[in-house]
Specification:
Elements (H helix, E strand, L loop, with lengths): L14 H6 L5 E5 L6 H16 L2 E6 L5 H5 L10 E2 L10 E6 L2 H12 L2 H9 L1 H9 L3 H16 L4 E5 L12 H10 L1 H11 L11 H14 L1 H14 L3 H16 L3 E7 L3 H16 L4 E9 L9 H10 L4 H30 L5 E5 L8 H12 L2
Parallel strand pairs: 1-5, 1-6, 2-4, 2-5, 6-7, 7-8
Antiparallel strand pairs: 3-4
Helix pairs in contact: 2-16, 4-7, 5-11, 7-12, 8-12, 9-11, 10-11, 13-15, 14-15
């Protein structure tokens, strides 16, 4: 797997075996920012379609537009778009989409309530803010969208490209966060006035609730409190469904049809993040299938050590071109050794996690051919 320094002390990740396995329905790519996670997800999706004949969709939660560009699409939105130019044998197809959390929220409301109530919810200022900007909404809607794609049964494989950094796994918290929100005392209190027909929410007889409303009104203001209460009441009948669907998707992520791939670069910060993801997945009982190590330095002549190359450069100093080549070789060997040492920290901590190394690319990936090359590297071809 590696060059002069020898193989990493870890099993080899067989990416083609993973992508060809009909029992694997979901692949989740997670990792810190700037390690090639989006490109990896796209390359996996393309290879699954072209080499293994699978009808694949790539769902990105990362707001970056690189995925659309590399697949020749003008833009990605909340609807899967078929990628043209895929040379799939056996009926393989590739589709791609980008999560639109507000549109997904709107779709959920439309699917689980009547048209009149949906219009009331859409017009509510609190809903408009929550569905667009509130912290946690994106993560919950990612669970919703993944659950929708899985339930439709149209895809052999769903590849999920998560947001960068540790927020990549925040969507795993969506069911618990939602339960805390729905069971919270404030939400229960806000439902009380909306359930009292024909009475002003500020004229209830309950002294305890009166104290509550006065306190909250000082913080939120009368109109916002009214908007919140109306919004909560409108969604009250849907709350159980929200929770049930999120928990169902969570269980899917725990079972054998899902494979988590941690994507990293051979750099200290990225490897530390990879270790965080590995620990978090173990804690959540999620199946960690392997580590994709991107942007690994390669050495053309691994038998020549850095010391030998540097000594040769000194001897050949009069022949500038050859000496320069030796110096570059020496620097690459030393860089590769540093990368291996950093990566071994992860391998030592997680010796059973398979690893695949992807060499650093000469240029940024911007089309399907570039994604194919990444796919070949992932498969070891």
């Amino acid at each position: 797997m590696s060059d002069h320094a020898g193989r990493l002390r870890s099993p080899q990740l067989d990416v083609d075996k993973l992508l060809a396995d009909p029992g694997i329905r979901i692949v989740v790519c997670c990792g810190s920012g700037g390690v090639g996670k989006t490109t990896t997800a796209a390359a996996l999706g393309l290879r699954a379609a072209e080499r293994h004949g699978r009808r694949t969709v790539v769902l990105t939660i990362d707001p970056a537009r690189r995925l659309a560009q590399s697949m020749g699409l003008s833009a990605l939105d909340n609807t899967p778009r078929q990628v043209k130019g895929v040379d799939g044998d056996g009926g393989g197809e590739l589709h791609a989409m980008m999560l639109d959390m507000k549109r997904t929220f709107d779709e959920v409301v439309l699917a689980h309530t009547d048209a009149q109530k949906a219009e009331e919810i859409f017009a509510n200022p609190f809903y408009q803010a929550m569905s667009s900007t509130f912290s946690g909404t994106q993560e919950y809607m990612a669970m919703e969208k993944l659950g929708q794609l899985r339930a439709r049964g149209e895809w052999d494989l769903i590849v999920v490209d998560t947001p960068p950094s540790r927020s990549a796994l925040d969507f795993l918290d969506a069911p618990a966060r939602l339960s805390r929100f729905l069971d919270g005392r404030m939400i229960r209190m806000l439902l009380v006035p909306a359930r009292v027909s024909g009475r002003s929410m500020f004229k209830l007889a309950s002294a305890s609730f009166g104290l509550f409303t006065r306190a909250v009104t000082k913080v939120l203001g009368t109109q916002l409190l009214t908007d919140v209460s109306t919004f909560v009441a409108a969604l009250d009948s849907m709350f159980g469904g929200f929770r049930e669907r999120a928990e169902r998707t969570y269980r899917i992520l725990q079972n054998k049809e899902t494979a988590f791939l941690v994507v990293a670069a051979p750099e200290p910060d990225a490897i530390r993040e990879a270790a965080y993801f590995a620990d978090r997945l173990a804690h959540e009982q999620m199946p960690l299938t392997g580590l994709v190590l991107n942007r690994v330095t390669t050495v053309a002549a691994p038998a020549i050590s850095a010391e030998t190359a540097q000594a040769a450069a000194v001897r050949l100093d009069g022949q500038s071109v050859t000496a320069d080549v030796m110096r570059v070789h020496s620097a690459l060997v030393e860089q590769r050794a540093r990368q291996r040492a950093v990566t071994e920290r992860f391998v030592s901590a997680y010796p059973k996690v398979p690893v695949v190394e992807v060499p650093v690319q000469a240029a940024d990936v911007h089309d399907l051919d570039g994604l194919r090359e990444i796919g070949r590297s992932l498969s070891g071809a």
